[in-house]
Amino acid sequence: MKEGKIFFVTSNQHKFSEAERILKAKGINIAHHPERVEEVRAEDCATVAREAAVCAYEKLKKPLFVEDSGLFIDALNGFPGVYSAFAFKRIGNEGLLKLMKGKEEKERSAKFVSCVAFAGEGKVKVFSGECLGSIAEEMKGKEGFGFDPVFIPERSGKTFAQDVELKEKVSHRKMALMKFAKWLKKESRGEK
Ligand code: IMP
User: Fold this and answer.
1) Residues 120-151: b if buried by 16+ CB within 10 A, e if exposed
2) 44 assigned to active site
3) Are residues 128 and 45 in contact, defined by beta-carbon separation less than 8 angstroms?
4) For position 154, what pLDDT does the model report?
5) Ligand 1 atom nearest to CA at 171
6) pTM given for the model
7) Interval between CA 7 and ligand 1 midpoint (Å)
8) Does residue 114 surpass a pLDDT of 90?
9) Is 10 in the pocket of ligand 1 (CB under 6 A)?
10) Which domains does the chain have, with CATH numbers?
11) pLDDT digits (tens, 9 = 90+) for 19-57
């Protein structure tokens, strides 16, 4: 694949800004296509992302990627998971904290999962990343978006919303994007 602009198709400006900074540091420039991508119903983020990338490519016909992410809470059997966007809209962080009320520290483990799906001519690739952590007792911090005020990454006492610098080092999106960047570099060199 030749070097050229790759479009990140997302209606989430926060996701775009995070991805832009992370990929720029790897020498990859991206452009924003601010459109909401239709999502299929599926049990895992990888399938949702893959289908969305294929669908977006059929429409736009240019190299692009999409990203699907979710928060999986062990004590809630993985909920909200692939329904994270819906859950965030309906119950928000307050509702999530209510569901976790009374759970002790050892029962509050959770992880964020991110799947980045690239689609280009005759090519679809999915890259996933995870960030392990736990659900805070209360909302803390003002930065970031979504569940950032209630998610504490492992080996940190602060939520993502309190420590965005740490978020950009260890987040699920960072992990998935680093794999994507590595693959893109290889592709641009024509390596298999
Ligand atoms: P989707 O990937 O657009 O389907 O949305 C996933 C939902 O998970 C979003 O609405 C956010 O509420 C939440 N989410 C995904 N990534 C993050 C993150 O990095 N921080 C906080 N919340 C997130």
Assistant:
1) beeeebbbbbebebbbbeebbbeebebbbbbb
2) no
3) yes
4) 97
5) 19
6) 0.94
7) 19
8) yes
9) no
10) 6-188 (3.90.950.10)
11) 999 999 999 999 999 988 877 888 899 999 999 999 999
